[in-house]
Amino acid sequence: MKAVSVFPETKTLKIVEHAAPRITQPDQVMLRILDVGICGTDREICSFEYGTAPEGYDYLVIGHEALVQIEEVGSAVESLQPGDLIVPTVRRPCLHPGCRACRSEHQDFCYTGDFTERGIKQAHGFMTEFVVDHERYMRLVPPNLKDVAVLVEPLTIAEKAMAQVFWLMQHRPPWIDPETPGSERGYGLNALVLGVGPVGLLGAMVLVSAGFKTYVYSRELPPNPRIDLVSSIGATYVSTQTASVGQLRDQIGNIDLVYEAVGHSHFALEVLGVLGINGMFVLTGVPGLQAFIESDPARLMREMVLKNQMLFGTVNAGPEAFAAAIRDVDIFMQRWPDAVQSLIAGRYPPEQAFELILRRPTGIKSVISFGEARP
Ligand SMILES: [Zn+2]
Ligand SMILES: [Zn+2]
Question: I need a surface site. Which of 113, 279, 297, 375 has the fewest CB within 10 A?
């Protein structure tokens, strides 16, 4: 069985012949891989900046944003059957009895760092033909979403962030009543997304559909299909090349929420300086090595205190975020079918995986396809 793999020690990329897996425990399922999306994490792994092979292997099978179909189920599996479409979660818990996060199925908040991640850290990923995994990590997807369900995993980033934002907003201004329908919780508030990659664009969809007046701020200038996408969902695009952060703040008014999806520290810090009263700033991008810059932490601290601001980072996602992402992909498809479909640049064979991962992204999300769903 072929598998798209990285050899971190020898710094080589290769499609290897990988042994086909077998079900060995009653709660396991055999997955036939359909689609695997590629993202910046794959680019880092294939540039040997990140990524660890599982114990006993000198290579790591990559791929973590998967849509799969159940091929076979173990004797104790109750909730799934062959033919079901599934998005598997990525992170697997650490084994420490004292890790309260992992012991409560929230390995996305793992304390020890000894978790594994499929396709990223000490566990093989999904860019292969078949994978065996446990029932409890599988998230069922309705068949009508099969063409776009590969977007579920990247969408979980925004869903986890927004679940925390809304929880906080129920306990501090604007004191949203928990009974307020999801589509109205952001009503009257301004949200700003930084970046027009898949995480940023999916984040903008979450914010618009929650009722926020949503702006997207990034480097690109029109004409650009990503800018068209921003406009088509009812958000406003502003280019960093035509408006400074000060001008942006004047245009928006009080910036209630910033959803950062670039991973550029200077840019994030600059925008943090214009965050509004009672504002929340969510960081999702992971910066690589970047040049040191001068900054004024005393001013930043003064502003954050005097304006009741919050800043938090978020990574990976738990069961609730996956459930929310599956529900929202469905809602987005009803509301903006063309925009959602245009998030997928194209489907390509595994042989093209490395080339697509390593070249600068031309489309929005490229998908490696291992086959069609069976009826
Ligand atoms: Zn990813
Ligand atoms: Zn843990």
Answer: 375
